[in-house]
Amino acid sequence: MAGPMGGPKGGPMGRPPRGVKPQVKNPGKIFMRLMKYVFRKYKWHYIIVIALICVGVLANVQGTMFQKSLIDDYITPMLLVEKPDFTPLLEAIMRVAGFYLIGVVSVYTYNRIMINVTQGVLRDMRNDLFEHMEKLPIKYFDTHSHGDIMSIYTNDIDTLRQVISQSIPQVVNCAMTIVSVFVSMVILNIPLTIVTLCMVCVVLWATKTAAGKSGKYFMEQQKNLGKVNGFIEEMMSGQKVVKVFCHEEENKTRFKEMNDALCDSADRANTFANILGPINAQLGNVSYVICAIVGGLLALGNVGGFTLGGLASFLTFNKSFSQPINQVSQQLNSVVMALAGAERIFKLLDEKVEVDDGYVVLVNAKEVDGALTECEERTGRWAWKHTHQADGSVDYVEVKGDIVFDGVDFGYTDEKMVLHDIKMYATPGQKIAFVGSTGAGKTTITNLINRFYDIQDGKIRYDGININKIKKADLRRSLGIVLQDTHLFTGTVKDNIRYGKLEATEEEIIAAAKLANADGFIRRLPNGYDTMLVGDGANLSQGQRQLLAIARAAIADPPVLILDEATSSIDTRTERIVQDGMDKLMSGRTTFVIAHRLSTVRNSDCIMVLEQGHIIERGTHDQLIEEQGKYYQLYTGNAIKA
Amino acid sequence: MIRLLLKEVKEYKKASLATPCFMVLEVAMEMAIPLLMASIIDNGVDKGDMGHIYKTGVIMIIFAAIGLLAGMAGGRFGAKASTGFAKNLREKMFNHIQTFSFANIDKFSTAGLVTRLTTDVTNIQNAYQMILRMCVRSPISLICAMAMSFYINPKLASVYLVAVVILGAILMLIMSRATKYFSQAFPRYDEMNAAVQENVSAIRVVKAYVREEEETAKFKRTSENIYKIFIKAETAIVYNSPIMQLTVYSCILLISWLGAKMIVSDTLTTGELMSLLTYCMNILMNLMMLSMVFVMITMSMAAVKRIGEVLTEKSDINNPEEPIYEVSNGSVEFKNVNFSYKKDSNEFVLKDINLSIQSGETIGVMGGTGSAKTSLVNLISRLYDVTEGEVLVGGVNVKDYDMETLRNEVSVVLQNNVLFSGTILDNLRWGNKDATYEECVRACKLACADEFIQRFPDGYETRIEQGGTNVSGGQKQRLCIARALLKNPKILILDDSTSAVDTATDAKIRKAFAEEIPNTTKFIIAQRISSVQHADRIIVMENGQVNGFGTHEELLAGNEIYREVYESQTQGGGDFDEKAGE
Asked: What global pTM score does this model have?
């Protein structure tokens, strides 16, 4: 269930419908880059493979050449003598067999090596992609459709498989074949070679024409397929709404339209792709006939010492000459398709990772002789280790959870500011609440504290340190966060709670679950704490998932907590029970609470009322009620009546 | 299962039959050519008869031309048949899904249905085309080539026969092993996709807990698994081409050796030997082709099975034989209703529900998570059928109404609601496709959506992205309410539909309802007490049963759960209540 993202809202994100493959802008460059990627690790593999391909091709060619000598050098002379001696022929066959065997072995070897290369490259690419993706800023995920990111892993990488494992070796293979066959043909007979070349040109022209048409219709098919898939995706996920609005018939009609268009273009694309085969084969046959006639005439007239055996070999070459040319042209199509995928892969790999210039780190601390010092073991106390850049001296500041916003301006894009001149301070242990209507900028503020986004203007200080100086990982480690859309991971309940603190013991996990009041329902699950959660915890209710998320934050034991609608899906009775746990969790920590349920925020030390990016009211619950302003309206819901 | 799918070939039967026929013709031409070739060499070149060379050459070219035409026709009809089949299949499935009830939809995941309609259909389309073009062509081509070889020289041809049998057996073995590995590989893929999906959607959590490295390590393990299984699968089929080559080469050499002997002893001509060598390639290539078709069929069988699952799924809610097309009023009655999502389960989600609601009443529904509030209201518009008892709307059992009539009169705003890509107006008109602009604006004003729509630069023409990602949660909910209002329903059900709307706006919407559509029966499910406390009566649900049913005051006095919820939300004492201006 994909909830709305907590990030920037509004402003349609223009993206092409899924499935439409945009034209690759710079295929040569991307191809070279892909090759570089492959060669980086598998240079020697590839070199060996190419050498082996050559061996395989040569073995094949020598076999074909043998057909000439079979007739000319062995059979024809033997026909002339009374008692033919078969030993030279046997020897020749054995020799050819030897070469063939080498050929077969090299074909096997290079195919085997290619498996490792292909799968290795795909694996590396997946790993690189994932590793890089994890480092990207939140902004990337907020501005790119998740489906598009997924499709890089599912579709684009797979299209590369064919290019790496088949296209490249095949192109090498074909090139080798073409060259060696061409040389052999020239050796055998030049006029016939010219005839063959002319026919190849005709074949190529016919192929190009048909392939061009096919390609055009394939693009159209992809476009229609994208439309149909998009429609299907949308309607399948909204099927219940379709039912409620009795929209089935309209849907059928719209679907039929798109489906018919898809069928139309698919039909044409496939037709042209299908007739490529017969065109090549039959034009090849015509070429064969012409060579036979011309060759027959030459052999009969014995022009230039051309023999019958020579004709036999030539005719075989004639066949094996046009074949690879067609293969190359066909491979080119799939290469172009794959390059479009490679382009998207590299685009993701080129996305700028989150920059982190922070140098203040979080360390365990203990007090020795009244001064705070760093220590290895976990003490429950933390300190910011501030290494001054100017002189290299080190300061330790205890982590207390003091957070100050000073004139903060922020916008997801530079054109449109979302927050204006936000000033606030939270002293350690305080509970600060943000209220306001949707879109007022509540979630945005929390996005800034943990630096999911960087502010445009102003300063945020954490225990007196500008948060830009703190290492992001350490900053985030010191902040516990529970989001409205709880996300759980595939794994056991225990694993999910442990996510907050990897080295947590069993007891700590249970204690955290109890604190969040999750222990009860966990024990009722089929396997208790070892119950497997799949598909974002689909087997739990929304409320139960939120309880787990709270337990996950509790176990991390951070000095600062951010609760973004953390209890919105828990019914109020349960919330009251959880509230005790939450209060325990919040005590002694600076807590930022976002809630639209006002009962959740009532006991805050300070409530900020946000409207369109400005703090318009601030104070305690009682003060704000007294003021009878926006908060009063929100709280009582009596805006109009009053 | 296959037969069920094949029914969808329909108007493409002719094309489906024509394809193999033309393929056979093409094969026949292809087979004749090496024979003519032999004749050119033996009777023309050898005897120095140019006339024969010309004559045979012309026949060969004619044959090639016929082959070309037949091949093109085969390709044309093959494309038509397979794409047409895919089209019909897709349409049939899509239309069938439209008849699904909520229970049917629950059974399949959205992703599962999408895959079936897209990837699976494409796989079947490819397999069908392959079968039409190759399943007949390859065996016939193989048999023809074999027959020709036997015709030329039975002794030498028997070499091929042996080779075919051996190669066939080996290929079968390899393929069956490879299929096993490949089928093991797919679940691994799902695992990886799940890992990526999880990380993309939960990236905030990953980053907040600084778990990037752990997640990467986890992903690498999954990726390593895929690597291993694919290495296994591909290693199994890697023998294919070398073994194929080995057989071809062995045949060529054997034929050369034996053929040479025969030519010397004058039982074979040179031309015939060359033809035999040509057939050799032909026979073995076709065998290879057949093994590929075999793999393709096994792979597409999975798709066939999955599509079959959808097509055989019967909708369990159907229109009655003589439906009633008129809902007289908005009264609702539950009589001894028991309900369970699973048919054969004794665990009821709703137990022993008896309620009577008059037309025009506003009913609040309260209760904890999982107390079956949604299940209760879903029965009213017959999104699910009761297991026992009956639900009456306007005094008539819901099962007797025409479903479309019922659902138009009972308008539901679902909890997990969806907007569709298109303009705001397009989305609103889902409620009533003939609604005028003014009617749409009026509905939006009622739902307090007009105020923010007017602020959009394009107003009512603003495009909504798929899933409504470019409007906020609260805006989306208000649009969904407006859409439901456009139906002009007799009963309106809001299933937690204002949870993301702030309290003030929520109150405004409720006020508009009370003033503008007083005759519509309204059900309001909510967590927030302020959303329901002004309702005429309030149902308190607990564990699938009605725990209390009455006015705010009655419940406050007599219902423990209600009082508890009320207090939890309005803590702070009576002081506050006075200020709230109760």
From this structure: 0.74
